[in-house]
């Protein structure tokens, strides 16, 4: 067990600290973090369930045997993106991808699939990860390179929201608005941070995302939270201070709240209207990950402790490999009524496409179409119907 790392340490009176056994780990969100965590956890046979790490590298069960996830891999998105390119009769396409495990592995998948379909890559460029405002020139250079291939209007962008937001700002600076058709990955498409200030640049984007549904009751729960009733979350006060631009009276000074000149009253309330509260659709995958552990532990308890209520000695002696087997065999309906089975998630996704268009009130709405409930039964007719409904001014076969 990972809790045995400090077994050699004891207190001054000779006693040893009590330890709780770690049954499993939830997370991480980013693929890069999950890979590092998975490399450690496999040494201690501790199962890990991620809710948003989509890199296809994590599908390698020889390296990541204790890693599971409630989202499909990026290979699924790449397959749909290539099918979009084929249906639009594009003979070549440009690819911009993030300089991270998420982006690089996705680019490798796209490159392989495009080659199999005899589609050329016009321009391929990396988005510098976490580059900061000082690197505006690198984003400008990417847009200028796109301009060197005037006949290639289709661009696949595999990246995260912050980096793609900076790319769209570069599109604006270089007067390239409306010159390209963007196909976006789940890491940035439909994200507010990308849209704000870049409305005209992202208009018309075709997004490929895992299908997600709202978690019932979550909005009411979150909007009712305050620092007084949510003390278990050590970061909630920071969120409160940032949201209401005030300093919580009991909090320590940090580089972030030093700028706030007034104290929070405690009477502030989070609302969708005044605070821009925008729930992440991916919350479903988080709830599914939590439920997966709950069902697996229940299954493990019923097998090892059939005559006992609660945890028995057999269960306490079991290691993570036992829990992993139960995680792999459970099947259940998540909170949002989607079916969860870890043997199938890496193979097929539920995917939907959306097309972002600006309304008269300068707000964006998405036209959505579910194109796949299983990769084995890819709904090509749904994809064609969706593409034909868009005003792309391009021929669709």
TL;DR of this structure?
By secondary structure, the protein is of the alpha/beta class.
Within the largest sheet, what's the order of strands?
5-4-6-7-8-11-12
CATH class of one domain: Alpha Beta
Per DSSP E runs of 2 or more residues, the count of β-strands stands at 12
The count of helical stretches stands at 14
- CATH fold naming of one domain: Rossmann fold
* Helical content band: 25-40%
- What shape does the CA trace take? globular
* Backbone CA Rg: 24 Å
* Average pLDDT rating: 84
| Span of the ends, CA to CA | 57 Å
As residue ranges, the low-confidence spans are 359-364, 370-378, 393-397
Report strand %.
5-15%
Largest sheet: 7 strands, mixed
Structural class: alpha/beta
From the 3D coordinates, which CATH architecture of one domain would you assign? 3-Layer(aba) Sandwich
CATH 4th-level superfamily of one domain = Response regulator
Succession of helices and strands: EHEEHEHEHEHEHHEHHHHHHEEEEH
């Amino acid at each position: 067990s990972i809790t045995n790392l400090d077994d050699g340490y004891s207190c001054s009176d000779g006693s040893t600290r009590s330890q709780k056994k770690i049954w499993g780990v939830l997370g991480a969100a980013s693929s890069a973090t999950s890979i590092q965590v998975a490399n450690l956890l496999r040494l201690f046979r501790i199962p890990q369930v991620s809710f948003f790490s989509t890199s296809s590298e994590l599908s390698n069960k020889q390296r990541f045997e204790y890693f599971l996830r409630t989202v499909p891999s990026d290979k699924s998105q790449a397959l749909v993106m290539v099918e979009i390119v084929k249906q639009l009769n594009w003979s070549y396409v440009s690819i911009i991808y993030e300089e991270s495990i998420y982006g690089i592995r996705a680019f490798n998948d796209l490159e392989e699939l495009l080659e199999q379909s005899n589609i050329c890559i016009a321009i391929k460029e990396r988005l510098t990860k976490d580059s900061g405002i000082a690197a505006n020139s690198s984003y400008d250079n990417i847009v200028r390179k796109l301009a060197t291939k005037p006949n290639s209007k289709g661009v696949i962008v595999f990246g995260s929201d912050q980096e793609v937001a900076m790319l769209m700002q570069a599109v604006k600076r270089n007067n390239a608005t409306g010159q390209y058709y963007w196909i976006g990955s789940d890491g940035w498409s439909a994200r507010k941070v990308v849209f704000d200030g870049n409305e005209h640049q992202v208009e018309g984007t075709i997004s490929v995302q895992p299908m997600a549904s709202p978690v019932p009751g979550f909005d009411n729960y979150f909007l009712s939270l305050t620092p007084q009733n949510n003390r278990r979350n050590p970061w909630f006060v920071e969120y409160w201070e940032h949201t209401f631009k005030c300093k919580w009276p009991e909090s320590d000074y940090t580089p972030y709240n030093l700028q706030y000149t007034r104290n929070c009253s405690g009477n502030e309330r989070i609302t969708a209207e005044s605070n821009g509260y925008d729930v992440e659709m991916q919350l479903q995958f988080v709830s599914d990950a939590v439920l997966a552990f709950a069902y697996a532990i229940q299954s493990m308890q019923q097998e090892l402790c059939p005559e006992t209520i609660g945890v028995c000695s057999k269960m306490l002696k079991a290691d993570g490999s036992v829990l992993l087997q139960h995680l792999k065999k459970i099947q259940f309906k998540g909170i949002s009524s989607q079916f969860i089975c870890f043997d199938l998630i890496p193979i097929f996704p539920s995917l939907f496409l959306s097309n972002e268009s600006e309304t008269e009130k300068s707000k964006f709405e998405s036209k959505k179409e579910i194109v796949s409930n299983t990769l084995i039964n890819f709904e090509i007719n749904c994809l064609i119907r969706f593409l034909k409904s868009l005003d792309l001014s391009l021929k669709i076969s």
